[in-house]
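hey m, so remember when u said the tokens were messed up on ur end? i reran from scratch. heres the input so u can diff it against urs
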Amino acid sequence: MLSMSSGTELGAEEAGPAPNVLIVEDDEALAEEMALTLSDYGMRPTTAATWEAAIAAVEAAPPDLVVLDQRLGRVDTLPRIGMLRSLTDAPVLILTGNRVETDRIVALEIGADDFLLKPISGRELVARIRAHLRRVQQTRPPEKEREKEPDQAQAQSQAGTWTLLTVERELRRGDGSVVPLTGAEFDLLAVLAEAPGHPVDRETLTKRVLRRPWRPDDRALDNLVMHLRRKLGPGGDRAITAIRSQGYVFTGFPRG
């Protein structure tokens, strides 16, 4: 259970958009208690009780941070962190009662950002979330530097112009409609589009997009490519091509 009754109270964060925090927890009472606590501190919590519901929530509204219980019924979520990482680059905080050090180390190596041991106080939960959100904010370019970036990078296809907006972080089709990309999908496309026609190795892509070292058994990058190809529509498989023993190459946007 959470407790906010003792110790020094947390201060208010600076004004800004309320962060969207996804809580993946199958204990309904605990999930509700965490959601109420985060709401009290100016956040917008969303809850999911199953892995399937969590994935649907991520795809419907990209979160700013995910609190993920290690166990959802009989499902151990640690081996599935790679899949989650292919859908979002938001920090992932594992909530667990497991105090085995090796499990924590493995989780951190495969993409988790932090471990929260049960029981956890409301103050610590809020403080940990705020700390990770601040780190994300600090990694973004300062506003003045962002203003110096080109407003857009364009790539021509035979059926019109696709526009990759680097500041707005959007991809628009020739008809002006926006392709709904996750943060990680946009980053992947942006990195590949920097060198069209030239392969980019897996180590570079994993480091720049997923922000961690690549390992031969890491399938998160492949899953991310798969999702991005689907969103590019017909011809997506040809737009991003796998080069054996090298990586991936961007060959140009598909028609339409």
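this time it looks ok to me. The radius of gyration is 20 Å. if urs says something different then somethings off w ur setup not the seq
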